[in-house]
Amino acid sequence: MALHGWLDNAATFSRLAPALATALGIRLVALDLPGHGHSPHRGVRAEYPLWGYMPDVLEAVDALKLNSATFVGHSMGAGVASLIAAAAPERVDGLVLIDGLASTTSVPRLKPLMMRLRRGNCAGCGPASGHSSDTSAPPLSTIASASLRWRRG
Questions:
Q1: CA distances from 118 to 75, 87, 149 (A)
Q2: How far apart (Å, rounded) are the C-alpha atoms in residues 5 and 148?
Q3: How many angstroms separate the CA atoms of 116 and 4, rounded?
Q4: Of 6, 79, 126, 152, which is the most exposed, with the fewest CB atoms less than 10 Å away?
Q5: Residue pLDDT, tens place only, 103-120
Q6: Are strands 2-3 and 69-74 parallel, antiparallel or unpaired?
């Protein structure tokens, strides 16, 4: 599963995918993440946090009838792939990170968020995001900010 970078699209893998498929005998599926390429935007006031792409990617994996996949991520896509690996390691066979970046969200805080996302409760993603909202839980942006402050000391 190939995940592109910020302001990019699935076509970024158009030259790499055939070479990998031939050399390794694999199928590489490249996604246009929401708001990029040919995929629709989430809405006028929607936010696009890194973790907000996680349910979209896992839904694509499910649509392909796969339990797990190897993720090839470039830049932002590498960050999304890393978050998926941290939150749902059972869904990740391997990671290939090109110009990857580190997440500012710790695993203990990410696990409950992933569970909420799996249940369809995406608090903090915003009403225009297309995800449902669970107002009883702290918003994702609040948890990410707290984690970032904790990491900076």
A1: 24, 11, 26
A2: 22
A3: 25
A4: 152
A5: 555 556 666 766 666 665
A6: parallel
